[in-house]
Structures are given as C-alpha cells and as structure tokens.
Design goal:
The chain is 14% helix and 33% strand. The protein is of the alpha+beta class. It has one domain.
C-alpha cells in the first residue's frame, strides 16, 4: 500500500521565468500573481522511484502528471515565492511543467 500526503512545493518567480524563456516550452507558467492562464497551465510531474541525480530520465518508475487545483497555486508576497500544494500517493521526484504533456526522457 502506498502512502498518501499533501505536499507543498516552493518556486521562485525566476524559476518560472527561466522555464518560460526556454525554446519550445509551449504554454507559459505564471508570469505574476494575477496570471490566471499561467496558473491554469501549471502541472507537476511526479517520477516514482529513486534517482541519485534527480534527472527525470533516471527514475525507474512511471511518470504521473498532477494538475494542482488552481486555488492551491499562489504567490506569497512576504516570502517572494510561489507555493504549489497538491495531494500525492507515494513520494518521489517532482518537477513543474506546463499543461500539455512534455517528456524529459
């Protein structure tokens, strides 16, 4: 039986800006706290198993695409970071991505 949990990942705006600047990335991740399209496009890729490097291609298990509830993706002004909260089954590596499937393998 796999464990379940609610987790929160934290991202700086510069993390999303770097992603948005990469060629061929598709839909943008949030550009600011009022970017509802960017918030709606955010997905988290969960990679099961253990990886010594954190590279998505090095995880032995399947990838799961998580679509966090938009109201659980918010900018925290005081801390100056994004908080993305969602439920998971099992614990693994997590990476942000845009709404359409992308494969890192």
């Amino acid at each position: 039986m796999s464990s379940t949990a609610t987790i929160t990942l934290y991202f700086f705006q510069s993390d999303f800006d770097t992603f948005n600047a990469s060629p061929g990335h598709g839909l943008d991740l949030p550009k600011n706290s009022t970017d509802s399209q960017g918030i709606a496009a955010l997905r988290i890729f969960q990679y099961h198993g253990f990886s010594a490097t954190g590279n998505p291609a090095s995880y032995p298990g399947p990838e799961v695409i998580i679509n966090p509830i938009d109201s659980n993706i918010h900018w925290t002004t005081v801390a100056q970071w994004w908080e993305v909260t969602f439920d998971v089954t099992g614990f693994s590596g997590f990476l942000p991505a845009r709404g359409q499937a992308i494969h890192y393998r």
